[in-house]
Amino acid sequence: MDSALQKFKLVFFVPPAALSACKTAIFAAGAGCFPGPAGYTDCCFISRGTGQFKPGYAANPHIGKVGELEQVDECRVEAICLGRETAVKAVEALKRAHPYEEPAYEVYKMEDL
């Protein structure tokens, strides 16, 4: 791993039933590789919480009904991505693996201090 690469943090929210598939997808795209000589891979942090959304009238929701407020059990997953290209590939893989019509995710550029 090149520790000089810019680091990004991918954060996404997923129902527990799809957690394994989404992690497998982002790891296959290169996310979760910790920089350093030890060679750690498949690294992430997972926390449970409640997600809330109301599908719009043009939506085709995986969970819930159009126009109705929904609260669901979800996992928040955080994984490092080394290099912008890895972050882009991880997001693309996440979108393919995720069951939601519009997966909620965020990508943060990290600073070395």
Automatic annotation (TrEMBL):
Which superkingdom, per the lineage?
Answer: Eukaryota
Q: Which Gene3D superfamilies does its entry note? A: 3.30.70.120
Q: Which InterPro entries match?
A: DUF34/NIF3_sf, N-reg_PII/ATP_PRibTrfase_C
Report what the protein is called: ATP phosphoribosyltransferase
- According to its UniProt entry, this protein's organism is Cucurbitaria berberidis CBS 394.84
